[in-house]
Amino acid sequence: KSKRKLFIRIRAAAPKRDRQRRNIQRYRGGNVKPKVLLVGEHPHGITGNCNMMMELLNRADHSKFDITVYAGTKGLINNEFKEKIPCELIEGGLPGKEFIKDDLVSYLNSVKYLDSIIFVGIDIWMYQDIAETIINNRQRLGFKWASIFPYDLISVRKDYAELLNLMDFPCVYSKYGYNLLKDHVKNLRYFR
Q1: For the packed helices 158-166 and 131-141, what is the interaxial angle rounded to 10 degrees?
Q2: What is the end-to-end Cα distance of the chain in Å, rounded?
């Protein structure tokens, strides 16, 4: 009995964050690296967004982060010039499937833990339809939601501003878009 009381007092005295970290570590099988999901085009594609995804992967510290890429498009067929992708890759863009709506929604609904989801280079209208799914999973898993996106419309659409305000870290990658959105989107950042 006294050992049990001592254990309860020690556990109660431990900061809440330490308890959460221990629970996460136990659940993840000892892995406490933050789990990051990057959503965008395939790192081995030929577009600027593909290059942006590969550059983010090359610059990420993989010893500190457990990164998974959901690639909504296929990569190049020619293998000989490809850099090795230094993380888990989930390929979408299969025939009969929409870029984000099918496989990504299934993945989010099935994942057990996720610390961050980052949309890379995707227009916000591409995932506007699944915003509710993202929000529900954010409530369930407690992840941070970021997006690095273009904005080149001539005006601010109210529905887009509302969607961007739901994100933890909206990052627009044009000065034009930043100047247009900065008065309508809290926490807006310029990504360069």
Answers
A1: 20
A2: 60
Q: Are strands 189-190 and 144-149 parallel, antiparallel or unpaired?
A: unpaired
Token pair of 24, please?
């996460």
Global pTM? 0.80
CA dihedral 99, 41, 35, 178 (to 10 degrees): -100
Contacts for 164 with CB less than 8 Å, ≥ 6 apart: 124, 147, 170, 181, 184, 185, 188
Segment holding 162, helix H or strand E: helix 158-166
What are the angstrom distances between the C-alpha of 138 and each of 35, 109, 135?
13, 10, 5
Chain-centre distance for alpha carbon 4: 41
pLDDT tens digits for range 32-54: 789 999 999 888 888 888 889 98
Distance between CA atoms of 138 and 108, rounded to whole angstroms? 9
